[in-house]
Amino acid sequence: MATAAAETLGLLWGWLWSESFWLPQNVSWADLEGPGDGYGYPRAQHVLSVFPLAVCIFFVRMLFERFIAKPCALRVGIEDSALNKVEPNDTLEKVFVSVTKYPDEKRLKGLSKQLDWSVRKIQCWFRHRRNQDKPPTLTKFCESMWRFTYYSCIFCYGIRFLWSMPWFWDTRQCWYNYPYQPLSRELYYYYVTQLAFYWSLMFSQFIDVKRKDFLMMFIHHVIGIVLTTFSYVNNMVRVGALIFCLHDFADPFLEAAKMANYARRERLCITLFVIFGAAFIVTRLAIFPLWILNTTLFESWEIIGPYPSWWLFNALLLILQVLHAIWSYLIVQTASKALNRGKVSKDDRSDVESSSEEEDETTHKNNLSGSSSSNGANCMNGCMGGSRLAEEQGTGKATGNLHFRASPHLHSCD
């Protein structure tokens, strides 16, 4: 029995690491055992080093949010919502939990008589109680500041060393002498750090502020990790690094827009979001296909020819490009609404959050007036999306939320 199980595992392992799948013809894993230069050639066991690094990144994030991001949030006027607890009231709490969070005019009047409170006071109680259940703005600001810091630093690091690489300027050199391309120290650090960061996001998304595009972002992180690991194992790290750098360019603008929105700097938020949208569309709809897909599909075909993992790699990149197109469309919708209304509405791969109290007030007034029309749309995270644009006219919850980590790196849709 044990022998049969061992044979089955051996066959599964051999199938998983089949040279005929991973590598071009006439290339074996043994050929990549040589030291090469610098850090030698990429090897699958290198990927194991990302897990302790991912844990370190997570703890660095905790320290950063506590000792750097939180003081910055307080300095720009973001209050700690833990200090703003709603006044306890058993009757209203029972209605809130068991009946409705948005009482109509008839119920408000009934509660007013029962409690001897004014209708206005009860309205305020329900609004504050709803806000109490929402993720604290302080927490969201800290998360965005951490991502802004990481994306800015990793982009600067990446562009700094890629600028001097010949394959940055001539993508055909990503494929010359492939897969016998030694791994430099800078490229190794860049790749391992990016992969570790994706793993840290995979872990932290279960304790982070829950977005309505949680499932989309979960899939986004999985695809990003698969693509990054895949490209490292079969030594497509040169083109992988280009994809990293290209996707990192727009991300800091998104996170900066979110921080500006949390701090209620509305004009700055809109300006940064429009810049982000322009950067995203240019990099994902123009540069990505003309620069990245051109080299992975056509230049690589001409220089090394297709093989099984080549087809899978390009299929994933084409799926990513489809996501880019969808997200770009939704970003344009969100930006148009922001410019037309003078504020950013809730979008799907987004997290630009307007004042929840103001929006709840608008929602409540709409409820009382009987308005029922709504206008929703999804937006990219948001990186990839599944939430809706805030209902601009009508009933429903309006919590402007711009959570998108619009950047599928190598995938990748934080």
TrEMBL record:
Gene Ontology biological process: ceramide biosynthetic process
Alphabetized CDD domains for the sequence: homeodomain
DNA-binding region extent: 94-137
Homeobox domain location: 92-136
Membrane-topology descriptor: Multi-pass membrane protein
Main location: endoplasmic reticulum
GO cellular component: endoplasmic reticulum membrane; nucleus
Record domain TLC: where: 139-340
Annotated metabolic or biological route of this protein: Sphingolipid metabolism; Lipid metabolism; sphingolipid metabolism
Catalytic activity: sphinganine + octadecanoyl-CoA = N-(octadecanoyl)-sphinganine + CoA + H(+)
Pfam families registered for this protein in UniProt: Homeodomain, TRAM_LAG1_CLN8
InterPro entries named in the record: HD, Homeodomain-like_sf, Lag1/Lac1-like, TLC-dom
GO molecular function: DNA binding; sphingosine N-acyltransferase activity
Listed Gene3D superfamilies: Homeodomain-like
Keyword annotations: DNA-binding, Endoplasmic reticulum, Homeobox, Lipid biosynthesis, Lipid metabolism, Membrane, Nucleus, Transferase, Transmembrane, Transmembrane helix
Region (Disordered) residue spans: 346-373
Transmembrane portions of the chain: 44-64, 148-168, 188-207, 214-233, 269-291, 311-332
Protein name: Ceramide synthase 5 isoform X1
Organism: Mus caroli (Ryukyu mouse)
Encoding gene (name): Cers5
